[in-house]
């Protein structure tokens, strides 16, 4: 089969189209013929940082497609089923938390090929209201947003949520999901264009990343902050967080280290809840939630399979609003 | 009535015995004749930091005694009832968290007097198995420990808990409660004497505060950390915390600022949960828990009412293991 393979060179320059072996699914596995796949920042990190460049890897954590073959012992799944793929492998529950976390697309081969082989527990029925492109870009970011908002953030209707770095995949799902759940939503971005797009998507209030947030909020406080920016904005969080407020962190694009005042934390009973991906149960709950509220991914741009390098260039430039996808 | 009053001078030098007005309880209030009261670090902080030294304050958040008078509209409480006092006033629930937090003993007059007047909702039946001295020192620290371990820390039987700074009131209750809940408990202290006392109280493992904990634990990880030390020990936390581990913070005796690596937090799905005191529901649940497990406060020393200054000197020196109380 043809696949987008990463090898030899760090970064997206190491990407190229190749013909790779197309194996049959083993017992408990399913082969899915990919219709559309989605790009994630995770792919960029792997391409930049992996040390085993002698090995070829088919990246890609997001995808949707049609079941092409099933291994032994696979029940309730037939060739021809239209499915969406859950990207989290080996998630063991301890207090609703992962014990081991392994994600489709590295080290195991992912969705940037004509076929992908996954455990049968990793596929769910594709929501019928979504196009192939929409289903293909949904999984990882929507799952991360769902877990961040609901499992970790315990968002309640009527609460005020602040979402940093709007335009990114997870942040954009978080905006749509929080509005669907009846929350008031404020978003931040450095880009005026992205702030305007967020207002069109239903944000109640927008803030420039480098402005004084507490001033713009006019003393209004937020109950929940969903953040993937880290260092550059963290110092503003404790100023705008209401008593018993929660910060849910799933990334740190501007820097990894933050300084915290413990007394500010405990006088206000704050919580900092770090999160990553989600479980199979959360994936199913997320699919039900988006279907019930008819939430559609915001598609930034869809590229043909062959133009994966250009697709990643756009993501690296940080210009997108919403998801970037590949069409097979 | 006679009371230990703080005024004029910052610190425990400002304490003296005085005769103060003894008012009748208003509607909804109860007057309790104090039998024993407990000292807390909170009292020291207030004496050091309050700016309104022109006002006389009767400190004291912990106490137990006999109902001496009841105001209008108070039901189910009679003169002569033996009661224990819940020190948290004005706790409004939002997600099980306080909206406003006001604590007996400052700015409202507290338990270091012959009588204290509290809302009738602040008293509970004194557990019969406790002496007056034990009941008098129990409330604030046991409530804080209970909320830290169970409401915030979600401790489960079989988990491994690390409690820093053993010897302090809250830490000592946390040790006894965690053992009663079926957890494995490791404690830390700078003092070898306190580490030995902790072993006698049931701690499974002890660590010197300044040793390399991950080495001593031989790779063993903890699920929950209960901390009030802050800066001096915080850098060790992320090294010994198991995946999905929680840090519950209720103090910062060594310093307020800590630096956190966000990626370490979210790769491991860690939580930092700050806490302070507890609600009336938690106070009742704590009383039931200690009664069921026959947990008795560790009494460091009981001083006569008149020797409150000496009692605080001992607390300031940090020499105590467990609670320091006053007997009326």
TrEMBL record, chains A, B:
Domain of life: Bacteria
Pfam families in UniProt: ADH_N (PF08240), ADH_zinc_N (PF00107)
SMART domains: PKS_ER
One GO MF term: oxidoreductase activity
Domain Enoyl reductase (ER): start-end pairs: 11-326
SUPFAM superfamilies in the record: GroES-like, NAD(P)-binding Rossmann-fold domains
InterPro entries registered for this protein in UniProt: ADH-like_C, ADH-like_N, ER, GroES-like_sf, NAD(P)-bd_dom_sf, Zinc_ADH-like
Protein name: Zinc-binding dehydrogenase
Source species: Paenibacillus agilis
């Amino acid at each position: 089969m043809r696949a987008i393979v990463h090898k030899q060179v760090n970064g997206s320059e190491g990407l190229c189209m190749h013909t790779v072996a197309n194996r049959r699914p083993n017992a408990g596995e399913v082969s899915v013929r990919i219709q559309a796949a989605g790009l994630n920042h995770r792919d960029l990190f792997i391409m930049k940082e992996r040390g085993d460049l002698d090995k070829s890897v088919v990246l890609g954590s997001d995808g949707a497609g049609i079941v092409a073959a099933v291994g032994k012992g696979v029940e309730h799944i037939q060739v021809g089923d239209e499915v969406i793929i859950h990207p989290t492998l080996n998630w063991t529950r301890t207090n609703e938390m992962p014990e081991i976390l392994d994600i489709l697309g590295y080290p195991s081969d992912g969705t940037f090929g004509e076929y992908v082989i996954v455990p049968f527990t990793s596929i769910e029925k594709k929501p019928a209201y979504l196009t192939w492109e929409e289903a293909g870009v949904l999984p990882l970011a929507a799952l991360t947003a769902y877990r961040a908002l609901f499992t970790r953030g315990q968002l309640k209707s009527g609460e005020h949520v602040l979402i940093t770095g709007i335009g990114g995949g997870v942040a954009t799902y978080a905006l749509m999901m929080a509005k669907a759940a009846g929350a008031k939503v404020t978003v931040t971005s450095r880009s005026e264009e992205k702030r305007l797009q967020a207002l069109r998507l239903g944000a109640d209030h927008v803030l420039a990343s480098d402005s004084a947030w507490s001033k713009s909020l006019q003393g209004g406080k937020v109950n929940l902050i969903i953040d993937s920016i880290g260092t550059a904005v963290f110092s503003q969080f404790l100023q705008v967080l209401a008593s018993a407020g929660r910060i849910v962190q799933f990334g740190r694009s501007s820097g990894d280290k933050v300084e915290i005042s413990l007394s500010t934390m405990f006088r206000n009973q704050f919580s900092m809840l770090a999160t990553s991906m989600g479980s199979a149960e959360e994936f199913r709950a997320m699919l039900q939630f988006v279907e019930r509220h008819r939430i559609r991914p915001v598609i930034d741009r869809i590229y043909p399979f062959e133009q994966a390098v250009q697709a990643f260039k756009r993501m690296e430039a940080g210009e997108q609003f919403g998801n970037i996808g590949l069409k097979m």
